[in-house]
Amino acid sequence: MIDDPGPGSHPSPDQDSCQVEPRPSGSAWARKFAFALAGLIYAVRSQNSFWIHLPIAVAVIAVAAWLQVEAWRWCMLVVATGMVIAAELVNTSIEMIVKVLHPDHDVRIGHALDAAAAAVLVTAIGAVTVGLITLGPPLYQWMSD
Questions:
Q1: Is the N end or the C end of the chain the one with fewer CB atoms within 10 Å?
Q2: Is 88 a catalytic residue?
Q3: Nearest-5° angle of CA 108, CA 109, CA 110?
Q4: Is 51 assigned to a binding site?
C-alpha cells in the first residue's frame, strides 16, 4: 500500500495566509500528525465558531480542575468537548470543499451545509447537557458547604 497523507494535505499556492505547511522529516505517521495539526491550527485561525467553543472548553476545564472532580467526570467532559471540536472540524471541511467544488448557489448543497451545521449544534447541546449533569452536583455541593 502506498502511504499517501490524503487529499488536502498538499497545500496549493493559492491558499490563504492561515495555511501552516508542516514538512517534518521522519515517518509517515509524523507527517500525518503534522498535517492534522496544521488542519486544526488553520480551522482555529480561520473559523469564528472556534472562538466560541474554545473559551467555553477552557472554562469547563478550569471549573472541573477547581472542583477537583473525579476521573469519570473528567472523561465525560473530555469526550463531550472533543465531540464538539470534531463536529466543528468536519463542518468546516465540508464548507471548504463545497466552496471549491461548487461555488455557485444550489439549494441541495445549502441543505447539506445546514445539516452539517445542525450536527455541530446537536453535539454542542449534548455537550452542555453532559456538562450540567457532570459539573452540576459538585457545584451544588460546593455552594451548599
A1: N
A2: yes
A3: 90
A4: no
Task: Please tell me whether 29 is known to bind a ligand.
Answer: no
For the beta carbon of residue 57, count every other beta carbon within 10 angstroms: 20
What is the reported pLDDT for 89?
97
Catalytic residue among 43, 44, 64, 88: 88
| 60 belongs to an annotated ligand binding site | no
* Residue 98 · residue 36 · CB < 8 Å: no
CATH classification (class only), 49-144: mainly alpha
HEC string of the chain equals CCCCCCCCCCCCCCCCCCCCCCCCCCCHHHHHHHHHHHHHHHHHHHCCCHHHHHHHHHHHHHHHHHHCCCHHHHHHHHHHHHHHHHHHHHHHHHHHHHHHHCCCCCHHHHHHHHHHHHHHHHHHHHHHHHHHHHHHHHHHHHHHC
Do 76 and 127 form a contact (C-beta atoms < 8 A)?
A: no
Q: Kindly report, residue by residue over 30-67, the tens digit of the pLDDT.
A: 899 999 999 999 999 999 999 999 999 999 999 999 99
Is residue 49 a contact partner of residue 90, using CB atoms and an 8 Å limit? Answer: no
